[in-house]
């Protein structure tokens, strides 16, 4: 039987975040969900409203939570201003900076403030970050891609230092998931998800639940895995790379 652990999930109110909370609860874990928007309370789940880029507020939250075995950093996403930009090379600098803050800085603050909680826990411990296929292939979102590529660099740089303490660190790279928020933000391109699905080798898009199950597997079952970026995209990256070989 899988040992019950305490799990911290950031972005817990979003499409992927809420699915991840549900998967961990179904696996019998105690879950703390952080987000700027409150998630509904339920058994074994504690929602906490906090700005993930506010270092002092995050330190206070971590002091309240205590030891945790697993951290899942999901908060982030491409900003609407970038999705609507007609020329990616002329993206306003304030949007580029905001994307770094929203995706990369928030992840690093989560890491810094949560590591003492991981160190205080016993048994297998892990951190899983959310990067994106945008960090691996061309999708025309330079700020988001740069921020998510930074997540991969973060994982690579910390694999050995954290591994020496028995803490695993990995990243999950979803393809573009058609959550309610994403569908609303791509509404100006109504064929966006239809075209994306038809171009994938599996001829479909992944679901929030499939991404959530990947996070649970990384913490509960794939206990020999660290320093890896796991791509979950219905074959999007491989299909594009294969198409460019010719």
Annotate the secondary structure layout.
Blueprint: E1 6-10, H1 15-26, E2 30-35, E3 45-49, H2 55-65, E4 70-73, H3 80-83, H4 93-119, E5 125-130, H5 142-163, E6 167-174, H6 180-185, H7 192-199, H8 208-220, E7 229-232, H9 236-245
Parallel strand pairs: 1-2, 1-4, 2-3, 4-5, 5-6, 6-7
List keywords for this structure.
246 residues, alpha/beta, seven-stranded parallel beta sheet
Based on CA atoms alone, the radius of gyration comes out at 18 Å
Query: How far apart are the first and last residues' alpha carbons, in Å?
Result: 49 Å
User: How confident overall, as mean pLDDT?
Assistant: 93
Indicate the low-confidence ranges by residue numbers. Answer: none
Measured by DSSP, the beta-strand proportion falls in 15-25%
If strands are numbered along the chain, what order do they take across the biggest sheet? 3-2-1-4-5-6-7
With helices defined by DSSP (H or I, 4 residues minimum), what is the helix count? 9
Indicate the percent of residues in helices: 40-55%
**Strands, count:** 7
- Shape verdict: globular
- What string gives the helices and strands in order? EHEEHEHHEHEHHHEH
- The helix/strand class is alpha/beta
Q: Report the sheet with the most strands, covering strand number, pairing sense and barrel closure.
A: 7 strands, parallel
């Amino acid at each position: 039987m899988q040992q019950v652990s305490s799990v911290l999930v950031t972005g817990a109110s979003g499409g992927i975040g809420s699915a991840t909370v549900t998967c961990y609860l179904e696996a019998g874990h105690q879950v703390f969900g952080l987000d700027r928007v409150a998630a509904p309370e339920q058994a074994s789940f504690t929602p906490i409203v906090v700005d993930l880029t506010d270092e002092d507020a995050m330190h206070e939250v971590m002091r309240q939570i205590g030891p945790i075995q697993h951290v899942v950093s999901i908060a982030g996403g491409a900003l609407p201003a970038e999705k609507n930009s007609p020329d990616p090379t002329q993206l306003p600098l304030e949007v580029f900076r905001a994307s770094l803050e929203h995706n990369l800085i928030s992840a690093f603050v989560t890491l810094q403030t949560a590591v003492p909680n991981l160190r205080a826990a016993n048994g297998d411990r892990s951190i899983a970050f959310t990067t994106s296929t945008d960090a691996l292939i061309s999708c025309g979102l330079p700020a988001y891609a740069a921020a998510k590529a930074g997540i991969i660099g973060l994982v690579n740089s910390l694999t050995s230092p954290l591994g020496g303490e028995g803490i695993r660190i990995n990243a999950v790279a979803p393809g573009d998931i058609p959550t309610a928020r994403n569908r609303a933000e791509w509404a100006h391109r109504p064929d966006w998800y239809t075209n994306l699905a038809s171009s994938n080798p599996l001829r479909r898009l992944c679901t929030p639940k499939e991404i959530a199950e990947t996070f649970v597997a990384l913490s509960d079952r794939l206990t020999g895995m660290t320093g890896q970026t796991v791509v979950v995209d219905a074959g999007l990256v491989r299909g594009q790379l294969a198409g460019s070989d010719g």
